[in-house]
Amino acid sequence: MKRSLLSLAAAGVLFVSSVAADDSAPPDDSAASRRVAAHLFIKDYQTAFQEAKWAYEANPGSRTAIEDLIVASFYTGQESYGLTLFENYRSRFGIDPEHTDFLEEVAFGVIRMGMNSCTPALRLFSALAAFHANDARGVAILQKGLKDQSALVRSASIKLAAKLRDKTLQQEMLSIIAKERLYDLKLDAIRAAGSMKIVEAKELLINIITSDREGDEAKAAAIEAYVNMDRSLRSEDLRRMAKSQRVGFRTLSAVAIEHLDLVEEIDILVDHLSDTHRDVRRYALIALGRMMDKREFPKEAVRKKLTPLLNEKDISTRINALWLMTLIDPPAAEKLFLQCLESPLVEVRVKTASAISSTGVPGMELMKKAFRKSRCPYVRLNLAVGMVQLGIEDEEALTTIKEALAGDERLAVVSDILGDAIAPSKLSFSGDVLITPEAVNQIVRLELINLLAVKGDPETQTMLRTFLTERRWGITGVASALLMTEGDDEAKESVKKLLDDPDKKVRVQAAVVLASWRDRGRALEILEEAYEGVDRDLKIKVLESIGHIGNKKQLPFLAEKLNEPYPTLRLAASLAIIQTIYH
Fold first, then answer.
1. DSSP for 27-52?
2. Which end of the chain is more exposed for a tag (fewer CB within 10 A), N or C?
3. Spans in the chain with pLDDT lower than 70
4. Has residue 107 been placed in a domain?
5. Backbone angles phi, psi at 113, to 5 degrees
6. 357 contacts 392 by C-beta, under 8 angstroms
7. Are residues 442 and 402 in the same domain?
């Protein structure tokens, strides 16, 4: 059997080191360390541990020997033994923030143990830490997460792996698209194929797009993924798609024209407005609206095709048609748009308000009329957000936003091909959901407070303090990695003022929010001081927050927390160490 040069080299190290390890020879740290490394390389973990233990017993004062034994302990699953040794090591040698290789190995040891835990929450922490490491060890842990028995861990691993481009993870993603039975996870993998630019996924995506058995969401995700990875499309291929008997191909042609900015193919979109299938019509409407600034835009031809769609039975298509007509000729859409706001269904009212808000300058007058006419709080909230962004009716709009923030109802985001809308949360937390409804609610609320701060509203500080006092900042590390956007400077200043609040809870919550925005400064001081006096859940948030900031001076503090009695805290500390080292 052939053996690789690398394997032979490792074997050579083992042989030479074994000869050097004669009982009569004095202890040799470097030789013993090479033997341990060689056994770890060939995954002979038990022998590596035994070699490390012999070396440590022969020379217990050796820093190298205790480091090797600690690392080998984790590889053999002896976490408690390894952590006890590490505590002894830390008290004797301390932690140097500028030399982090060994501390990184210890953190990864805790993380690997977490991925082998029977508790999904611990495996979730491990997947997040692996993502932040973004090296071969991290990829191996994420790869394991992609095959995890828990849908929660698989979902997190898919979303996190989607931000990387590793070939091994790409192959796993192809397997998930082909074999995953849970619909939501399959959707995640389809989207990941686009963001990871997995060219080998094209055939799978085409099969989904053209299948009669796949759901609308899967087809939409596949279309988006396909155009994200294909930046070139020949005109003859595009026109062949546009005339295909398959709805999926015709829809794909509409999305591709907009995504690739193919101005010369706009006539295809105009023809699609008369298509027999609603999906083709809807995507064509959106594409035309987003390409209106082109000089070649055929406004009259589009207007003519639009007129019958303004009374379309399918409400989503009708709203999209009214949105496009508002961009072309606002008075022609006004009456019918306002009628949609009177729907008995809150979903329709919210979609309509969001569409009106996204018409921008052409829809300013319509926005104001709709805002004054409607009594639905969610219609008014979505319109208020659009009005504030345009600088119209600021006082009334800001008052509406503050009323929403003062309410107790949970807020959510409803996504549509036209954009996102704020709606009442109808999600339920089943225990296996990656991003909880409360996490989404808090992020939406923080974005609304951010708007107040940007506008210089005098009540921003009060609203923010109330938010931090009444609500525990419940954004998990995964949600933060996937959802959080950085606050504007005005919002940051408002939060910073609360670092001096007399209420300790407010100070800590403010520091956590600033850390989620990657803001350094006094937040670190507040977080470290608060750690010992808060409960376990908030301790996790404190550790995650310190990791977000990524200041290496905090590594000794984080290393101390590796000996916490709770595995969740040890994993949170390990994650923070990895984030800090790779910051």
1. P-HHHHHHHHHHHHHTT-HHHHHHHH
2. N
3. 1-28, 427-435, 470-488, 518-520
4. no
5. -65, -40
6. no
7. no
Question: What pLDDT, in 10s, does the model give residues 486-514?
Answer: 556 777 787 788 888 888 878 888 888 87
How far is residue 372 CA from its own chain's centroid? 37
Q: How far apart are CA 150 and CA 48, in angstroms?
A: 32
Predicted pLDDT of residue 479 = 46
User: Is 573 inside any structural domain?
Assistant: no
Say if residue 403 is in the same domain as residue 519. no
In 199-216, which positions are buried (b, 16+ CB within 10 angstroms) versus exposed (e)? Answer: eebeebbbebbbeeebee
Give dist(CA 309, CA 43) in Å, integer. 65
Res 503: pLDDT:
82
Taking the C-alpha atoms of residue 196 and residue 172, their distance in angstroms, rounded to an integer, is 12
| Domain of residue 42, CATH code | 1.25.40.10
Distance, CA of 481 to CA of 448 (rounded, Å): 20
The neighbour count for residue 483, using CB atoms within 10 Å, is 15
The sign of the torsion formed by the CA atoms of 208, 213, 219, 221 equals: negative
∠ CA 452-456-457 to the nearest 5 degrees? 60
Q: Is residue 378 part of a domain?
A: yes
Residues 6+ apart with CB under 8 A from 114: 122, 123, 125, 126, 129, 567, 571, 574
CB 536 within 8 A of CB 566: yes
Q: Are residues 19 and 78 in the same domain?
A: yes
Compute the distance between CA of residue 233 and CA of residue 241 in angstroms, rounded to an integer: 11
Q: Which residue has the tokens 């042989």?
A: 15
Kindly state whether residues 421 and 304 are assigned to the same domain: yes
**Cα distance between residue 415 and residue 185, in whole Å:** 17
- Cβ-Cβ contacts under 8 Å for 262 (sequence gap 6 or more): 233, 238, 256
160-165-167 Cα angle (round to 5): 110
User: Are 328 and 398 part of one and the same domain?
Assistant: yes
- Integer Cα distance of 550 and 19 in angstroms: 45
- Structural domain span for residue 386: 299-428
pTM across the whole model: 0.75
My answer on whether 351 and 464 are in the same domain is: no
Q: 518 in a domain, yes or no?
A: yes
Same domain, 40 and 68: yes
**pLDDT at residue 481 in the model:** 46
> Of 94, 117, 147, at which residue does a domain stop?
94
pLDDT one-digit tens code per residue, 539-572? 888 898 898 888 899 999 999 999 999 999 999 9
Q: Do 515 and 535 belong to one domain? A: yes
Domain end point (choices 43, 77, 94): 94
Query: So what's the pLDDT on residue 16?
Result: 39
